[in-house]
Amino acid sequence: MRKSRIGILTSGGDCAGLNPAIKWAVKTALDERLEWDIQYEVLGIRDGFKGLLHADLINQDIEGHIIHLDQETVRTWDRIGGTFLGTSRLSPYDPKSDCSKEVVKNIERLGLNALIVIGGDGSLAIASRLADDGVNVIGIPKTIDKDLPETDYTLGFDTALNVITEEVDRLRTTAGSHKRIFVVETMGRTAGWLALEGGEACGAFIILIPEHAFSMEKVNELVLEGRRAGSRYEIIIAAEGAKLEGGSEFVKREGSDSFGHKALGGIADFVAAEINKGTGLETRGLVLSHLQRGGAPSAHDRRMGRHFGIAAMNLIAKKDFGKMVAYQNGHITACPLKDIFGKLKLVDVNIQYDAERYNGRRNVLGI
Ligand code: F6P
């Protein structure tokens, strides 16, 4: 029987749902009942593309960079968050230190017939470029930002939404006791999905998203209106990428990482201070930060990780490379990696946001 060696790696920010996807890709590849006409072997690559760069295959030194994955190793992985393979934000195509030739060489030296890349926009752009450079790649979409085009779901999003909802539930009791306002900063980069859907799930009073610039006058007006109507406290969700009218994103640090991403942050404290100043109401900022990426995968992320992992192996078996597995209109499917390259899916303010209330829409049927 012919043999085929597959590599699998996770790249970019971690999130819940990665381990289930790895587990099910491995289990599908090694499932004896599936009667593949090829015998698969699966190698886990540690720390994203770093593992592929640093494994010294000339001297056969792969220790710490490559591990053999079998069914027993991955058996319990689907209930655990993060990634057992580790991850990094190393881009082989970083213009400041391009190492793509070395990475492609190492993929050849490792004898990988296919590579599964589980990643967000930055990592899947790398996957697309590797496909152009002749590597047989399959992408699996993951990111709590849910900003990838051609798919209605990206792994990690649902777990992050649950974190936001649970943390805000906790915040409510203390906010109410003290008649305080809390501005909760969520992740999501330039996309408002996490803030909008998290805010809708937890019933936030105001939701600020990157796709609609906000004014502090309007925020203060809404807050005072709420107080006049008898509310004791308010929860405001602010996406880290939201901007003031005529302003730009709040950044924690200047510069960008290997994927070209800025380090966003600071909006919660800014908005809290401005509400304090503008209304006299006691307001605090709270940054949920990496709590949103942590913890056990929700049931949805376990199932979606499972389906995406299986679909990746199905594509490999069909030799249908250069694709990203996707979820569209309730079905698992796939699209060319090229179709997502350099694109982001953002909130459509006209359809999904109420720009008057700075909140989710009250008319969801669109009639
Ligand atoms: O893209 C995922 C994400 O969690 C963003 O929402 C956030 O801006 C960023 O990663 C944070 O990255 P880091 O883990 O490098 O702080």
Structure in words:
With 367 residues, the chain is an alpha/beta fold. It is 34% helix and 21% strand. It has helices spanning 18-29, 49-54, 71-74, 100-109, 121-132, 157-178, 193-202, 216-228, 267-279, 299-317, 349-352; strands spanning 2-10, 38-45, 66-69, 114-119, 137-141, 181-186, 206-208, 234-239, 251-256, 262-264, 283-287, 323-328, 331-336, 353-354, 359-360. It has a 7-stranded mixed β-sheet, with helices on both faces. A hairpin with a 2-residue loop joins strand 12 (323-328) and strand 13 (331-336). Helix 1 (18-29) packs parallel to helix 10, helix 6 crosses helix 7 (193-202) and helix 8 packs across helix 9 (267-279). It binds 6-O-phosphono-beta-D-fructofuranose. 6-O-phosphono-beta-D-fructofuranose (F6P) is lined by residues 13, 120, 143-145, 187-189, 240, 264, 293.
Shape category: elongated
- Find the structural class using helix and strand composition: alpha/beta
Round the mean pLDDT to the nearest integer and report it: 96
Order of helices and strands: EHEHEHHEHEHEHEHEEEHEHEEHEE
What percent of residues adopt helix (DSSP H or I)?
25-40%
Give the radius of gyration.
22 Å
Q: How many H/I helical runs?
A: 11
Number of strands: 15
Give a nutshell description of this structure.
By secondary structure, the chain is α/β, with parallel strands linked by helices.
